[in-house]
Amino acid sequence: MSCFAQRCGVFDAAAAERVQQAARDWGLDQVRIAWGDLHGAWRGKTLMPGALRAAFEDGVGMVSTLLLKDSADRTALPVFASGALQGLPGLAGLGRANNVLLLPDPDSFRVLPWAPGTGWLQAQPWFEDGSPVPIDPRGVLQAALKRLADAGFGLTCGLEVEFHVYRITDARDDPAQAAWPAEPPAVALLHPGWQLLSEAHADACDDMLALVRRTAQGLGLPLRSLEIEMGPSQFEAVFDATDALAAADQMLLFRNGVRQALRRAGFLATFVCRPPFDSIMSSGWHLHQSLRRLADGSNAFVPHGEDGDGSDAGTRAGRDDARHWLSAAGSAWLAGLLAHARGAALCAVPTVNGYERFRPDSMAPVAVQWGRDHRGTMLRVLGGPGDAATRIENRLGEPLANPYLYIASQVHAGLDGLQRGLQPPPATDALDGAGAAERLPAGLPEAIAAFEADATLTGGLGAPLAAAYSAVKRAEQARHDEADDPAAWQRREYFGRY
Length: 498
Known about the structure:
CATH topology of the largest domain: Creatine Kinase, Chain A, domain 2
CATH architecture of the largest domain: 2-Layer Sandwich
Radius of gyration: 23 Å
Number of helices: 16
């Protein structure tokens, strides 16, 4: 009889054996089997090396309620209530809090640079009948990229990720003070801020930055630079552009790996948008994207005169016309991102905290607009005729966005623009990036409503994922609204956990 992984069509016996041999060669004590949840945190179990063969063949059981957790680890739906999940397509069977099975990908094997003797494998969840779990975020992105490939394109993404790091002064680990969620540690600044790209600040933080660098490089991530950002104790990591699925994997590896490695050294790394202090700068995640033609690997955003766009069209129409800077495909993709910006906001900014970033003079977008090298707009177009690096930078996202859902939302929005031949409005030069354009959602409730109203996005991501994601986010917002102290709620909900 075939093993479970063979019935799912994902078993590679030779690759599985290579990982088992590598575990022996490294003398590993344990191997973590990890799955990225709705919030972009790793979940999973730790196996002894001798259990790897069974994991590759038959999977690792994981309680299915982890699929429905909100940001405080509370199950967002009453899974034991009769009929509670009937409204979630394909998920009614989870009402027993039964197991799903994690099948590890042998090609993802790594030895964790901060955890001696520990290997790591990424896994995806399957139902016991051999069908994939439809609310697995990575599976949702894989399906989106399959749609894009069927249209003849791949997606290339580059990441710019801002985050904060503090030195822990009091772990607050007294059991008598335990709460759910726990109070975060007391912390101290690593640099005072307000001196962008300060070499002096970088030198003062070199011990911590060296740990970040070794962690990223030890995980095989294409780290390009580590920079001092404007706010106190704020930093930025920039990565080389790569395939979209690889970029999403790398975002989760970086975010979770840096938090783990730095915590061992007495630091708290947080990717929350706005830490709970008066004098801070918000953190964003700027997602660079371009299409590549699968036929030859070329950048499909670069304008060329032969298809009626490019410099000639730009001269006629003016430099505020997207056709000057982008190909026909690039212009349509840009228009799709604009058309679905409000609905996609929930995937780019999924927390209550993240919407506090959108305030005057923050260089965070407030309206559905694009501009040529304009950091005040949501979509910043870079490059142009003859530039192989031509791309669109989406400046909407926060660092806590689930990378699989954020990027998948871009694929479905951009594809809609391509398939309908949409054209973007003129670029804006407004200094505040607003003008008369449609406004982006002002908070999580408005973003949830816009997401649910966007049939292109909810249909593209799949009815099960759309329903579950909305339910989880509504539960998160409801708990915030019920909190006696909303600021304390945010501090405990996000700051010490993500």
